[in-house]
Amino acid sequence: MAQIVEHELTFDAEGRLVDAAAEDRVASAVEGGRTNLFVFAHGWNNTPAKARILFERFFATVLDAVPGSARPSVATVGVVWPSIRWPDEPDPAAPSGGAASVSTGTPEGSNEEVVEALKAVFPSDAERQALDRLKDLLDERPREPAALREFQALLATLAAGTEVTAAEEDQAEEPLLVDDPEVVFSAFADLSPGTGVGGAAGLGDAWRRTWNGAREAMRVATYYTMKNRAGVVGQRGLGSLLGRLSARRGVHVHVIGHSFGARLVSFSLAGLPGAARGTASPVKSMLLVQGAFSHFSFARVLPFRGGGGALAGMEERVDGPIVVTHTARDLALADFYPRASLIRGQDAAARNDLLHRWGAMGWDGAQEVGATAARVGPAGTSYPFAPGRFLNLDCNALIKDGPWPFGSHSDIVHSEIGWVAAAAAGLAER
């Protein structure tokens, strides 16, 4: 039986390829006639091993949609990069998106276990010192406002990752790092499995509730760092590599990304060297599966200020369709992702405005890009694909399973989505 995932590209946090020989192996595959490269970037995962399981399961659905006559031209590539999934979250590598219930008792994973896991993706001395002190504060839970302020300042140390391209439309984390920490952490408390919906029972539990919220704020701060890192890895790492591969005759790259991995493959377009309007691109299709980045990223004109999104015009670097899956059942994107910005919303109307301002691709699709809309159908469905144009694919009826507070964010392995990937690449047999 043929290997489902044939190649792996591993990047560090700065977009450097860890194993340079991996690029040579992919290039050799292209030279040998494997000119259709499906390149998949994971979102948050605990380990490379978890990422590999997800690659296997997802690529199996894609290959099932590719007819035997086209299989000899196809190669599969998994993109591994340093991100983290906390232990109490649904696992994208598990069947049905890891949709088992999340406990409403003590959050799974001690503070020490979480911090040790985070050190794998926050390797600098300053970051590790900040993590150790964050763990101490979570363990001690001092009943002092000064301790909350210190905790917030340490979160800023973790969130200080360097962004390659300014993305003002995608910086919803600012309130988390600058607003009153007691207000901020209280706003995050309802996301804590240790608090539960409805919050603490009385005033005597107020500090426990606030520190539960602080732990959730730490989770969100680390994820904003992962989101920014995805842009770095995409532009400096994957984009440059794809540019080098474009010199290989006849190469057709089909990029796919889940969650922050969708941001990674999107920013790879900005890293293509010498790409300009009218220049042939190696990227022939792009599938963004529950993208955890701004739905305005590709907008030429932003509705809330002058100028465009960080990726405005980059769709011209795709010589085929751009498909964006979205569902309101993805609570990670409908609530968890914009939670920091929602701190400043005081009523329903303000909340709706902030969700529009800070909404994610996987919540309602790409916005202000003239996208076509369609509903996902069974394998074999014909979609209105067009080169360099967005198709917002409503997946409310498909990507729908998963527990609170993340919903269906990880429920992504479906034959219907595999068909979309193959069809967008022009390889599915109707």
What's a quick, concise take on this entry?
It is built from 14 helices and 8 strands. By secondary structure, the chain is α/β, with parallel strands linked by helices.
Biggest beta-sheet profile: 8 strands, parallel
What CATH calls the topology of the largest domain is Rossmann fold
The low-pLDDT segments are 97-107, 195-203
How do the strands line up in the largest sheet?
Answer: 1-3-2-4-5-6-8-7
Helix share of residues?
25-40%
Sum up the overall morphology in one term. globular
Mean pLDDT: 86
What is the terminal separation in angstroms? 25 Å
Strand percentage: 5-15%
Q: What do you see in this structure?
A:
With 430 residues, the protein is α/β, with parallel strands linked by helices. It folds into two domains: 7-87 and 91-98 and 230-424, Rossmann fold (3-Layer(aba) Sandwich), CATH 3.40.50; 111-226, no CATH class. The chain is built from 14 helices and eight strands. It has helices at 20-31, 48-64, 111-119, 125-140, 145-158, 174-178, 181-188, 206-245, 260-268, 331-336, 339-342, 348-358, 361-364, 415-424; strands at residues 7-10, 36-41, 74-80, 252-258, 283-289, 322-326, 372-375, 390-394. It has an eight-stranded parallel beta sheet with strand order 1-3-2-4-5-6-8-7, with helices on both faces. Helix 2 links the parallel strand 2 (36-41) and strand 3 (74-80). Helix 2 (48-64) crosses helix 14, helix 3 packs antiparallel against helix 4 (125-140) and helix 5 (145-158) runs parallel beside helix 8. The longest helix is centred in the middle third of the chain and has 40 residues, at 206-245.
